[in-house]
Amino acid sequence: MTCSAFINLLKADADFIKNVRLWKVTQAREAVYSAIPTDLAPALEQALRTRGINQLYCHQRQAWDHAQLSQDFVVVTPTASGKTLCYNLPVIQAILDDPAARAMYLFPTKALSQDQQSELNEITLAADLGVKIATYDGDTPNSLRASARETGQIIISNPDMLHSGILPNHPKWIKFFRNLRFLVIDELHSYRGVFGSHVANVIARLLRIAQFYGSNPLIIAASATIGNPGQLAMQLCGRKFEVIDKNGSPAGRKHLVLYNPPIVDAVQGIRRGTVNESQAIAVKALRARIKTIVFAKSRIRVELIASYIRDKLANHFTENNGIRVESYRGGYLPNERRAIEKGLRDGSIHAVVSTNALELGIDIGGLDLAILAGYPGGMSSVWQQAGRAGRRSGESMAILIASSAPLDQYMVEHGDYLSDSKGEQAFINPSNAHVRLEHIKCAAFELPFDELDQFFPDAEAYLNLLCEEGVLRKTQERWYWANQSYPAENISLRSASAENVVIIDTTHGKGEVIGEMDRPSAKEMLFPQAVYLHRGRQFLVQDLDIEQHRCYVEERQLNYYTDAVVKTDLKVLHEDRWHEQAGVRMCLGDILVRSQVSRFKKLKFKSHENIGYGEVSLPEEEMHTSFVALCMGEQTAAGQALLTIENEQRAPALLRTLTLLRQVAPAFLLCQYSDFGIAERLRDSHFGQTALYVFDAVPGGSGMAEAFASQIAVLLLAANAHLSSCPCSEGCPSCIGAHDSQTELGGNPKLAVKKFLQTWISNAGLEQHESESL
Predict the structure, then answer these.
(1) By the 8 A CB rule, do 658 and 708 touch?
(2) Which residues does residue 155 pair with via DSSP β-bridges, in sequence order?
């Protein structure tokens, strides 16, 4: 069945259509071409023509022109629009003109690096250009690393390897850095938040070393749709960028469907889950032979959806005529990831269920249908994931299936807001004190610091602090590294911990490594007696050895999976400043967050019902971060509003209000739901009054708590509007959560939260600003 026929099949399906909240069609787009540059090397032009490229898209030609003028630029066009040629053409041309020239390509993941090497190889082999390309990452064998350093003209890597493997060892890279002409940064939009702040410091270190060796590379960036590409590129690299955002590539007709699953419990307002709903639609598509990708929001959901799809199809296809369905997520071994990517490209894999690991521009062939099992947390992610389906001709479809979460419900019921939004703005804070201090250590290890450093202009205070700690020494107005440690190895760019836990299969004495996981996640997913799911196989965790970074598992056949119950304790370390806003007193400062898995739930496959609990005994995970506390003394508008609620309803109302605020916050703060944590204290031991805590979810802070504080008025109004529009009577997963009659015996929780919010807003005088804010 063609994709067009499958789309018509869905339109005729009454059970499907009744749950559709928006069906938007984007018509096919014709290409806008420009001529191949006359100054392109004949061999390179021949390589393009061999691949059937006789003209360039207009954005590719514009990129070429900027590169010839040595102007830093960022290309912002959709998925599959030919962004790679925007940097490959000028880079290869420069190497053909001067074989000593070097270029570095940075991609956020190793999978993208491997994909780009394949793309480059196709170009260079098409006309035997002889350009030497090497991937240099954690998967590169030691035997190939020396030759890559010495002879590689294009080095493809990622920020993690650049940070920990290349920059600290720059004396081995003298030839490369001395001749570095280009720095290419692809998937720019992925460098946001704390990760982006780290990467900005890594790039500053790279440019600092390049300057030391006498080079100043042209920087070319590429990004999917984002609201502020020029600003983000400048924050990331410290330079001004020209923005190329006119897309000249063609596209087929595309359908975007917003789908709200049916309610299965009218009393509590519970809808059918995204796991079961997405697998049902995927199975229908695969039976029609529609190539499909499903995006899920967690590793466990990826494994569950893939497993359910396989089980459903097992009864439909024989082994020889079967459809191959794979899961794809972080933690798989490199050879597993490569095999899955290759299978998608050559068509031997018909469907893949993935986390956002496949959201970025890995070439996975032509897919017809993208299913998003839940709103991924940002508009840029929606368009990236939806864009994984679609060819340059023919129809394609993306279906966003809403979960019961308030933000999902808001998006699916306000379809125009989502479909008309093209991408959020992204911001980073390279000067974050925690991030900056760590990278100044790394930079000092790499090269001594002078009094005025172009790339770290705020370094002096940090350098003096490190001198006091004995890490550096100052001699003749220069700071030198004076420690035996290797600072880069202790800094992870992406998580709170730089340590990974290796997962070892001990079934029948194998001792085979099957995956890995960062330490904090391991404590929540690999505790003893946890069920670990891996590509359709079930393993029971026998032992988690945190000190040795090992987890031992054994394959079993079980009828349940596990989910950790995590408890969190807070301790205020320092109060930085106080201010009053929107009828509440707010304290910003530093806090110690202790989290610990106390027990786990056993959830039955398919039905997801709770069939039991188990106990867990693991050490705490500690994090020093930033916070804001919303303090509600009796003299504040919020405190007075709380007094209008019955005593037994106050604690539940506080937690449900904070949960609702956290759910709507990502739409206004342009962040991820997981970027900050929350806690409520009816009688807080530190402040001696009612307090709501919001804290950054990464060590040292990321600015989210402070942003939450600055937007509190807007968030209050948005939460109240969402609560008022929800049709449930006593609360449901789409607003404040389902009513728990066992813990809330004293009345209607929704009415309590509604009364609390509306009284707070009224007491603070916020009503007159509501229409403007929303």
Answers:
(1) no
(2) 104, 134
